[in-house]
Specification:
It contains six helices and no strands. 28% of the residues are buried. It has one domain. The chain is an all-alpha fold and 151 residues long.
């Protein structure tokens, strides 16, 4: 940060010390957000409808067979979220999340932008974050980084 002119120069050393943790924090938070959503679909946890009712809902929404798409979405959220938390196969997990979110943006766009109206705002944010990890990978604070191998 030495080459940047900060309004409060004394903060430069704090920013520099925290910088290596910025993307890992974002990656972990993304995973932690996704996992409970998958648990709602697959297991009925956290007030979710569970696998059978979500399968019926997906069928009604035109995602047939519903049981298959609930499984795909639920596993994307649970397994992909866990992979993101750990930084394991980060790019693969991010790719699946990004594909899922492209569909979610398309699906929710009919209701407008704001998430309070069930619009696309939340899905778009998750898509953007997933794209960051698709491009950047898990980084040094990840199992991918510790293994020294990434996709």
């Amino acid at each position: 940060m030495a080459d940047k002119r900060l309004f409060i120069p004394a903060l430069g050393s704090i920013y520099a010390a925290c910088e290596p943790y910025a993307l890992p924090i974002l990656r972990v938070v993304l995973g932690v957000i996704l996992i409970p959503h998958g648990c709602q679909k697959l297991f009925g946890m956290f007030g979710g409808m569970g696998y059978e009712k979500f399968s019926e809902l997906f069928d009604k929404l035109g995602y047939k067979p519903g049981w298959f798409w609930v499984l795909v979405v639920g596993l994307t959220e649970v397994v992909g979220g866990a992979c993101l938390v750990l930084g394991l196969f980060t790019r693969v997990a991010a790719l699946f999340v990004a594909i899922f979110m492209i569909n979610a943006v398309w699906f929710t766009s009919a209701k407008g932008f704001f998430w309070t109206q069930q619009g696309l705002e939340y899905s778009l944010l998750i898509l953007a974050v997933a794209l960051v990890f698709l491009i950047r990978g898990g980084g040094t604070c990840s199992l991918d980084g510790k293994m020294g191998r990434e996709f």
